[in-house]
Amino acid sequence: MSDSTEPITFDATAAAELEQAAYAMAAEAGAAILDTLGQEIVVSYKDEASGDRAPTNPVSDADKAVEAMIEERIRTLFPDHAFLGEETVDSFDSAAEFTWAVDPIDGTQNFVNGIPFYSSSIGVLQNGVPVAGAVWGASTHTLHPGVYHAHRGGSLRFDGESLDTDGRATDGRLRRIVAVPMGNHGRAAKWDYRSLGSTALEGALVAAGVLAAARNPDPHVWDVAATAVLVPASGREIWTRGKNGWEPLDRFDLDNLAKWRQLVLVADPSTVEELKR
User: Fold this and answer.
1) One-character DSSP codes across 38-59
2) The domain spanning residue 194 has which CATH number?
3) pTM strictly above 0.70
4) What's the number of domains the chain is made of?
């Protein structure tokens, strides 16, 4: 979160238009990802082996191709906007008013191993404030791929339609699911926990009322920029823990955007305090 104390201002009409653009790009990214199924993909690793541990941070040729496609769309439609992509972070210019933070395939480890839980995440920031976002998910509450999307001040939508975010109706359910990475600590005993592997899709499923909460100790901005729009649009909360303790995640620090990494928690207002541990 930024240290700025200036009030958050944004153009609601412009934010709605950016949402539609992000939605269209996310749908196109999802279609491109689905086209790779059944084809051979080429995988390399951003980290190196260490002792008995194999590399853990893969990138595929599909990641690079999808990111290049999204970047081309953004630069064509919004030539004065900045682009911050996971695979091209070194070329980011933070001087623009608007920044698109993109993770072409969030959950690459799942993707390259054929596990159908991954996403493509597109978030739009205005002077560091999340104003529009879209997350295409390979797995959604409908059991089909689709796009969760919203703009600041608007409601959560799924594939262009308003979404009921109450989640699945149940009778007698005592425990709900919280998504946390392996090795994460401070777990309350009342929840069941899963390590799912796609921060953006986990956040979208919290917004949709599927997951009770999700927590990640050190995501990048491209992992959570879209989530920071979807979650408030559903009436849920997104928090980060930085040098000043827990704060709502309503703004990113532009001076440190490319290197931003902080603990992030998304949850229903009635349960968020229990998970701030």
Assistant:
1) TS---EEESS--BTTBPP--EE
2) 3.30.540.10
3) yes
4) 1
